[in-house]
Design a protein that fits this description.
This protein has a single domain, classed as 3-Layer(aba) Sandwich (Rossmann fold). It has a seven-stranded parallel beta sheet, with helices on both faces. Strands 6-13 form a two-stranded parallel sheet. Strands 8-10 form a two-stranded parallel sheet. By secondary structure, the protein is α/β, with parallel strands linked by helices. Helix 3 links the parallel strand 4 and strand 5 (about 110-115). It contains eleven helices and 13 strands.
């Protein structure tokens, strides 16, 4: 049994992760501003960047998992929202690193989320963990996020996981797409040529668990399936899984009008052809390596 603290443990990835860790017998504390939202695990109130009673849970844990941060796709990128997106990650990560530093332990593990937005819009370039960072708002957010997480390296084994687009029907991008596709109004976004680094949610949970249990794992890992897809191929595959047409494109100008040019270009019209080289080289096996099997699993799950 491990003592595990999860920041962001009531969200789209955090809640199923907590359930999975509890099922295998771990003691799991969930750091939260609102205990009523915690349905699995032991709720512990925190208010980063301030330290408090929660700091003892972190300092005495075996594993700290950082999934905290405002949803980048939760609304139009106004100046205020961009500020909250950045500051939520800075506050949470800085507070966790400070709490861990109070009781350094050679056995402590810190697993911190990041995202493939780190690479920016790179066209057809093949990208892995050794690729340079890109430009844009998401790249700046993730670079800062990762820099802060690496601040724990003097006293913890640090694993940074760059999430791709996570496939599950109860949240994330797929949840927003299911209704229009089921109504026959789905299709590619813009040209559909942009690459989409995707991953099944079960594989995300497995990568995190794999990182917890193998003390030799450290550094940065791309949590993306080994077969990235262009947006047009994603649309066609989802339409096929749902047995619905998928030829209704959403014009780029409409997305820019609805979301603003910066958000539309970075989140929907740009992309990254990302490969999970580090994880595969170290023996991680994906349960859902191809898009069709993942979408069938996500839609039926």
């Amino acid at each position: 049994m491990k003592r595990i603290v999860v920041a962001g443990g009531s969200g789209f990835i955090g809640e199923p992760l907590v359930r999975r860790l509890l099922a295998r017998g771990d003691d799991v504390a969930v750091l939260t501003r609102n205990p009523s939202k915690v349905r699995s695990g032991r709720a512990v109130v925190w208010n980063p960047p301030s330290q408090g009673a929660w700091s003892d849970d972190v300092a005495n844990s075996d594993v700290v998992i950082n999934l905290a941060g405002e949803n980048v796709g939760g609304g139009r990128w106004t100046a205020e929202r961009k500020k909250r997106i950045m500051e939520s990650r800075v506050a949470a990560t800085s507070a966790l690193v400070e709490a861990m530093s109070r009781k350094p332990s050679p056995s402590l593990t810190f697993i911190s989320a990041s995202a493939t937005g780190f690479y920016g819009d790179r066209g057809d370039e093949s990208l892995d963990e050794n690729s340079t960072p890109g430009s844009g708002f998401l790249a700046e957010v993730t670079k800062r996020w990762e820099e802060l997480a690496r601040g724990a390296e003097p006293f913890a084994r640090v694993v940074i996981i760059r999430f791709g687009v996570v496939m599950a029907k109860d949240g994330g991008a797929l949840a927003k797409l299911l209704l229009p596709f089921r109504l026959g109004a789905g299709g590619p976004m813009g040209s559909g040529q942009q690459w989409m680094p995707w991953i099944d949610r079960d594989d995300i949970l497995s990568i995190i668990e794999w990182s917890i249990d193998r003390d030799a794992k450290r550094g940065t890992y791309n949590a993306t399936a080994p077969n990235p897809a262009r947006n047009r191929d994603f649309a066609r595959t989802l339409g096929g899984v749902l047995h619905r047409p998928s030829f209704m494109p959403t014009p780029a100008f409409a997305l820019r009008l609805a979301l603003g040019s910066e958000m539309a270009d970075e989140m929907l019209l740009g992309g990254q052809r990302v490969f999970p080289t580090h994880a595969q080289d170290e023996g991680f096996e994906f349960a859902y390596p191809d898009l069709e099997s993942s979408l069938k699993h996500a839609v039926s799950g």
